[in-house]
Amino acid sequence: MRVLAPYLALYKRHKWLLSLGVVLAIVTLLASIGLLTLSGWFLSASAVVGFAGAYSFNYMLPAAGVRGAAIIRTAGRYFERLVSHDATFRVLQHLRVFTFSKLLPLSPAGLARFRQGELLNRVVADVDTLDHLYLRVISPLIGALVVIVVVTFGLSFLDVTLALTLGGIMLLTLLVLPPLFYRAGKPTGESLTQLRGEYRQQLTSWLHGQAELTIFGASHRYRELMEQTELNWHEAQRRQSELTALSQAVMLLIGAAAIIAMLWMAAGGVGDNSQPGALIALFVFCALAAFEALAPVTGAFQHLGQVMASAARVTELTSQSPEVTFPQAHSDVAEHISLTLKDVSFSYPQQAQPALNAINLQVNAGEHVAILGRTGCGKSTLLQLLTRAWDPQQGELLLNDQPIAALNEPTLRRSVSVVPQRVHLFSATLRDNLLLASPSASDKQLSAALTRVGLEKLLEDAGLNSWLGEGGRQLSGGELRRLAIARALLHDAPLMLLDEPTEGLDATTESQILDLLADVMQGKTVLMVTHRLRGLARFNQIIVMDNGQIIEQGNHAELLARQGRYYQFRQRL
Questions:
Q1: Residue 95 belongs to a domain
Q2: Residues 310-313: contacts with CB under 8 Å, at least 24 apart
Q3: Which of 257, 285, 318 corresponds to the end of one domain?
Q4: Considering the domain boundaries, does residue 162 fall inside one?
Q5: Which of 98, 164, 266, 291 would be a feasible disulfide site paired with 280, CB 3.0-4.6 Å?
């Protein structure tokens, strides 16, 4: 139960709305019990007095009570559902924001061990499962407790023994059955949570890698694995359904036994009345209605195992400490940035081979540096250290002779524009995706940035309101790359980090983009990772990396004269 404590604390944020939902649920339950109890007594009493009592029997007041209880039950049920679900959705909204705010500082170090599908499942499905905590556990449990107290107290005015008997049976049922079915349903609930995560992870991987699986003939084998996981998931759902049916059957059995007990005991007299007559129906129908209030409780605790398993999976994410922390002190963004790396070494977790090994580099303000090297030599890692996605294990990384770790996060983000290798687009409009780089930019500025990178055709039809879809699926690789460059232009930071900005572009477009970058990068400090050798003569420095080290460094003419690795690259072209 301790794993639920942080999430129960989040409910305090909407405690008044949640409390109102519980009160409305209790009012609805009491109105339902009152309706059935009063109706049973009214019909029985009317039958007992018969036609002779038509003028002496007061049928107006009970009839009004029946109508009033029916109206209260209908209205109470409507507003209880309205308020409870609204409160639950608000809690889930807050929980999603809370979870995401905990995840964001962990990226990428704290999330590297989670696959994309697994991470998505925890953030979405497991968080959604936590809504059961209020709707299926807290609210029904509090409602059942109040019903037991009110029913016992109300019936005690007629017969204390009968009232305590019914109340005792209900309380014993509430104390015994929920823990019993929680124990029985916990393994199934945990299995359901695990299998759901496995299946969705496998499905996500299959959808993303369908082309590769088909090419290498592994699609059928992977599909069989998915089907086996799905069958296991269905089997767990079947076991949970059987347990739910069993809990309902046991509850019906206990309720029937309580009704028979009330019928037998009331038949011998109610209070001082040895001829109870219609009061027998009152106790019988009250017991019947009261046990309906207990029906959801056993099923609620059966799902508690699934809720706790989901809470543990979410907590595993949110309880991690960030690998990279930022100071709170505010600092101004410099107009020009120089960059110094002194003996910088870095290794990824659980990797024996260092990604960077004793890197030394000096980049003056306004200099343009191209970084070459084969795949996996540490080029992109070097750029990631400059954005503090990771911190080096050794060495110093300075911006304007100040440790990069001394800059607070807003200052660092405003100082750096990044064109990443993998461009992330959200399922939103073109405008929304561009405003991420510059929230205050006008539509005119957004359109101008798109035009500068050759994406003016995206402004046709719906223009900036065009819906890009998940990951910008309707865009080509080159268009995604140019859209990332447009973002960098809008961000307009003094330090630009470009990770293969012309990859996927044809020769003509590549030349246009390089000309554009040469124009907008004037006065800015630039580091560009590339495998393409076009336009490198414009750069002040060119460094060649291999095995995490800088093996050559100089300008275009110097490196050609040395006839080293850079010269060999040029000769191959």
A1: yes
A2: 310/125, 310/126, 310/127, 310/129, 310/130, 310/193, 311/3, 311/4, 311/7, 311/126, 311/130, 312/3, 313/122, 313/126, 313/193, 313/197
A3: 318
A4: yes
A5: 266
Q: Which helix (H) or strand (E) holds 360?
A: strand 356-363
Q: Is 302 contained in some domain?
A: yes
CATH code of the domain containing 567: 3.40.50.300
DSSP annotation of 334: P
Q: With 80 as the cut, is the pLDDT of residue 4 above it?
A: no
pLDDT at 247: 85
pLDDT of the residue at 517:
79
Asked whether residue 180 carries a pLDDT value surpassing 80, the answer given is: yes
Range of the domain at 143: 2-318
Question: Distance (Å, rounded) from C-alpha 368 to C-alpha 525?
Answer: 6
Let me know whether 383 and 521 are in one domain: yes
Round the average pLDDT of the chain to a whole number and report it.
81
Whether residue 376 is contained in a domain is answered as yes
pLDDT at 570 over 70: no
Statement to judge: residues 292 and 188 lie in one domain:
yes
373 and 250 fall within a common domain: no
Residues 271 and 358 in one domain: no
Q: Which residue has the higher pLDDT, 571 or 134?
A: 134
The arithmetic mean of pLDDT across residues 501-510, rounded, is 76
CB 342 within 8 Å of CB 398: yes
Total domains in the fold of the chain: 2
**Which are the contacts of 107, defined by CB distance < 8 A and separation ≥ 6?**
389
Domain identity same for 391 and 520: yes
SS3 428: coil
Prior bond of 108 cis (ω within 30°): yes
Scored b (16 or more CB within 10 A) or e, 256-281 reads eebbebbeebbeebbeeeeebebbbb
Is residue 430 over pLDDT 80?
A: yes
Residues 554/562, Cβ–Cβ less than 8 Å = yes
Q: What is the rounded distance in angstroms from the CA atom of residue 308 to the CA atom of residue 126? A: 10
311 and 351 part of one domain = no
The answer to whether the CB of 283 falls within 8 A of the CB of 33 is no
How much is the pLDDT for 304?
Answer: 75
Same domain (yes/no): 379, 310? no
DSSP 130: T
Identity (one letter) of the amino acid at 348? Y
